[in-house]
């Protein structure tokens, strides 16, 4: 095994997050207590409470939708695109100004390493607002006809894995196109969305254009079913997405879904092994594997399987698992007890079904929700760990012999969100990319995101695209 | 000289059957139903398809996906243009059938046929252009080349419009095919005969078997099987009764189908790309740039 370098702790100060004792919902331009429960949001790294969060009740959903409707009819839907754009530019800048604070806050509430919140989540969130800001006065050039109209009031429900980034993915295109929004962040990670609401208020965004409701699944269900909406956007599990699709059946309200995945990351024998190993590690251990597009099924060409697995084990032994606020940390905490239980249960099923489990020696903290990076070999395509989305730092390794077999195995899933291909042969990359039934194909790289690049799924990974010019379509009446 | 006076020769009548996997089978159920003109006179007995026929059609459509979606766009365009050539050649036949089915004067029916042929030409021409219009290169902030392009979603279940027996049918079917999908079409329940004649055109137009499958029968009976079928990727609800749409949409959620509910049923209007984008997936491909 590789030598382990000792690093002195380099924690980011939690004071930077400017945590407040309590947070309120944001409705009609004002912060107020919700009519739901008051809950404590906790730090998944040590299970200590971070702050009190006042959750929304059903009456708050009504108020927020009414407020968004008034804002749409009265102000936002009529505002020239140029003016809407300037609001969005302001928001992008304000996120950049408060980037460090938001990064620490995100790592505290979510458990993700500060290196990721600082270098990925927050900069990308700002970039999304900046990108869509520029579209607001150019929508006639987006390919959806002259002077496309907004849809109206959107209800948006987002997950806990990239809290601020998901809020930005949802809000920026909606606002750029002239819609107003009721946003519901996930119950375990409400803080960054509520601080974003502070930023929106400070940007003088007119009241009601964005409302933010903290709350659990019941509030999410009440929001997506609300008759005052014109459009629903959801990112989360396929199971919930399916329920929402049923709920909206026959209502005429528009829907986009970004759901689960079980991506194949395919490594051919001619791939640069060191780069591929880095890509595989990034693909499944980025954000503790709590990523819908994670490369959770590694498909390795048989002739290099042993070599790759050995190299992976060596690399995993150097991963630093621990304090999310430490700048040297590679793998942070699992977001919640419930998610940890799910990861444990599926991993146990892997062992029970005969796959071989391996994790590096690593000291996990005593408190908090932790799961060591894990690799399963001898996995059969029929095993649950090869079929079900684990949403954790667990990699299932399968092998293939021919490119055709790789395609067959990669596509043998109801999901179709992403895929990876590693080979030095250009024609093979394009051949594979053509055949993989997935919305994003990363060739010789993995887990790349950009506001200009559309993202979304095939099959049961959902429908509609977020990002890029294509991301405008869901928020325009076309 | 009418048929009745021509005692020397009895006209040969056509048996209207289903079109599945490039063949013209009867319904496996053995059922048929009378199809009448608007004045109530009998036109023919059409096959009354069953759940099993729907499933067979989906199997045929799935089998055809690889070949049709893998064909070059130029090739697809030429095959579809060939369909228009065949339509033009059968102008008189279709005019009679549409006139009988829709109860409109023959001259008016002929105009519908012309419009349907022109529409087919319109969509044939889209085959090798839509990717350029709907795709993009994505100027990402990093050393990567990223591009996005539309791909067919796969098997599309199409409930053809109930009123417009040919122009409406062509207007919903051709856009699905142009982008590389295969289709299972439930023809107009009361006006299915032009759809079966269109199938004869398709069968003689170099369109591979299974790319289009035409089912006739009771829409309300067949549509739920199509909507809930796990190997159907998308559903076009154009021909569904408004009261049945909600149930079909609920059934479609089973495998997160893309469901298209049209807002415009004026088949004379220029459709633009409104029926092309609902049945494609956008795929984005990234690759690093480096030496």
Treating each run of at least 4 consecutive H or I residues as one helix, how many helices of chain A?
A: 14
Alpha carbon gap, first and last residue of chain A: 57 Å
Helix content estimate of chain B: 25-40%
Name the overall outline of chain A.
globular
The greatest inter-chain interface is formed by: A-B, 46 and 37 residues
- Total strand segments of chain A: 18
Cα distance, first to last residue of chain B?
81 Å
- The whole-angstrom Rg of chain A is 22 Å
Strand content of chain B: 15-25%
The total count of helices of chain B amounts to 9
SS strand fraction of chain A = 15-25%
State the fourth-level CATH superfamily of chain B. Aldehyde Dehydrogenase, Chain A, domain 1
CATH class membership of chain B: Alpha Beta
What does this structure look like?
The complex is a heterodimer of chains A (478) and B (291). Chain A is an alpha/beta fold and 478 residues long. Chain A has helices spanning 58-76, 81-97, 99-110, 114-135, 163-176, 191-202, 217-224, 238-248, 273-285, 305-316, 337-352, 384-387, 403-411, 426-435; strands at 22-23, 25-27, 30-32, 38-43, 48-54, 153-157, 180-184, 210-212, 231-235, 254-258, 264-267, 297-301, 356-358, 374-377, 394-400, 418-422, 440-443, 462-463. Chain A has 2 domains: 14-259 and 458-475, Aldehyde Dehydrogenase, Chain A, domain 1; 264-443, Aldehyde Dehydrogenase, Chain A, domain 2, CATH 3.40.309.10. Chain A has 14 helices and 18 strands. In chain A, the strands form 4 sheets. Chain A has a 7-stranded mixed β-sheet, sandwiched between helices. A 6-stranded mixed β-sheet of chain A has the order 8-7-6-9-10-18, with helices on both faces. In chain A, helix 4 (114-135) runs parallel beside helix 5 (163-176). Chain B has helices spanning 51-70, 73-89, 91-102, 106-126, 130-134, 167-178, 193-203, 219-228, 245-252; strands spanning 32-36, 42-47, 136-138, 144-152, 155-159, 182-186, 212-215, 234-236, 258-260, 280-288. In chain B, strand 1 (32-36) and strand 2 form a beta hairpin. In chain B, helix 1 (51-70) crosses helix 8 (219-228), helix 2 packs antiparallel against helix 4 and helix 8 (219-228) packs parallel to helix 9. Chain B is globular. The N and C termini of chain B lie far apart (81 Å). The interface between A and B is large, with 46 and 37 residues.
């Amino acid at each position: 095994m590789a030598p382990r370098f000792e690093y002195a702790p380099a924690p980011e100060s939690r004071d930077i997050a400017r945590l407040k004792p309590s947070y309120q919902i944001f409705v009609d331009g004002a912060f107020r207590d919700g009519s739901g429960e008051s809950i404590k949001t906790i730090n998944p790294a040590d299970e200590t409470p971070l702050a009190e969060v006042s959750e929304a009740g059903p009456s708050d959903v009504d108020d927020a939708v009414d407020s968004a409707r008034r804002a749409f009819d009265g102000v936002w839907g009529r505002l020239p695109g140029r003016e809407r754009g300037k609001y969005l530019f302001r928001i992008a800048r304000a996120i950049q100004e408060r980037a460090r604070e938001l990064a620490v806050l995100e790592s505290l509430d979510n458990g993700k390493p500060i290196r990721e919140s600082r270098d990925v989540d927050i900069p990308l969130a700002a970039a999304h607002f900046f990108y869509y800001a520029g579209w607001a006065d150019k929508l006639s050039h987006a390919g959806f006809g002259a002077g496309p109209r907004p849809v109206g009031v959107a209800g948006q429900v987002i997950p806990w894995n990239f809290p601020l980034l998901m809020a930005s993915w949802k809000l920026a295109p909606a606002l750029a196109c002239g819609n107003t929004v009721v946003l519901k962040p996930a119950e375990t990670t409400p803080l960054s969305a509520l601080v974003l609401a502070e930023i929106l208020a400070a940007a003088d965004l007119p009241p009601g254009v964005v409302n933010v409701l903290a709350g659990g699944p019941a509030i999410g269900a009440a929001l997506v079913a609300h008759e005052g909406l014109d459009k629903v956007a959801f990112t989360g599990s396929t199971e919930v997405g399916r329920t929402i699709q049923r709920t909206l059946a026959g209502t005429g309200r528009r829907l986009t879904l970004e759901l689960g995945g079980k991506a194949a990351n395919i490594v051919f024998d001619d791939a640069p092994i060191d780069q591929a190993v880095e890509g595989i590690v990034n693909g499944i251990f980025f954000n503790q594997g709590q990523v819908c597009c994670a490369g959770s099924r590694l498909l390795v060409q048989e002739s290099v399987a042993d070599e790759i697995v050995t190299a992976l084990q060596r690399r995993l032994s150097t991963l630093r698992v621990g304090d999310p606020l430490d700048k040297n940390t590679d793998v942070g905490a699992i977001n919640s007890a419930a998610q940890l239980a799910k990861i444990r249960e599926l991993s146990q099923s892997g062992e029970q079904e005969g796959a071989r489990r391996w994790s590096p020696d690593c000291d996990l903290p005593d408190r908090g929700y932790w799961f060591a990076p894990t690799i399963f070999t001898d996995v059969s395509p029929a095993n649950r760990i090869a079929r079900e989305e684990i949403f954790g730092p667990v990699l299932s390794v399968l092998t293939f012999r021919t490119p055709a077999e790789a395609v067959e195995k990669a596509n043998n899933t109801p999901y179709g969100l992403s895929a990876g291909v590693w080979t030095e042969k250009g024609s093979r990359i394009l051949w594979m990319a053509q055949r993989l039934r997935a919305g994003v194909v990363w060739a010789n790289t993995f887990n790349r995101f950009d506001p200009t690049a559309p993202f979304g799924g095939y099959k049961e990974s959902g429908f509609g695209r977020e990002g890029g010019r294509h991301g405008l379509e869901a928020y325009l009446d076309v | 000289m009418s048929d009745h006076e021509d005692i020397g020769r009895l006209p040969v009548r056509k048996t209207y059957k289903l079109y599945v996997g490039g063949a013209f089978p009867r319904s496996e159920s053995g059922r048929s139903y009378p199809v009448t003109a608007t004045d109530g006179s009998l036109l023919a007995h059409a096959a009354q398809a069953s759940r099993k026929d729907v499933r067979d059609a989906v199997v045929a459509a799935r089998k055809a996906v690889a070949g049709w979606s893998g064909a070059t766009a130029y090739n697809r365009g030429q095959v579809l243009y060939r369909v228009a050539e065949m339509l033009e050649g059968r102008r008189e036949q279709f005019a009679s059938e549409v006139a009988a089915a829709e109860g409109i004067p023959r001259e008016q029916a002929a105009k519908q046929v012309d419009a349907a042929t022109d529409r087919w030409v319109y969509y044939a021409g889209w085959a090798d252009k839509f990717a350029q219009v709907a795709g993009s290169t994505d100027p990402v902030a990093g050393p990567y080349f990223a591009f996005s392009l539309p791909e067919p979603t796969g098997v599309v279940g199409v409930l053809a419009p109930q009123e417009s027996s040919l122009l409406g049918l062509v207007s919903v079917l051709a856009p699905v095919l142009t982008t590389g999908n295969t289709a299972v079409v439930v023809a107009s329940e009361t006006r299915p005969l032009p759809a079966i004649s269109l199938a004869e055109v398709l069968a003689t137009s170099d369109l591979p078997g299974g790319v289009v499958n035409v089912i006739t029968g009771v829409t309300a009976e067949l549509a739920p099987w199509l909507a809930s079928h796990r190997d159907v990727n998308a559903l076009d609800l154009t021909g569904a009764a408004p009261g049945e749409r909600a149930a079909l949409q609920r059934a479609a959620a089973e495998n997160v189908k893309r469901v298209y509910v049209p807002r415009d049923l004026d088949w004379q209007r220029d459709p633009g790309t409104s029926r092309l984008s609902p049945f494609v997936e956008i795929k984005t491909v990234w690759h690093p740039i480096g030496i």
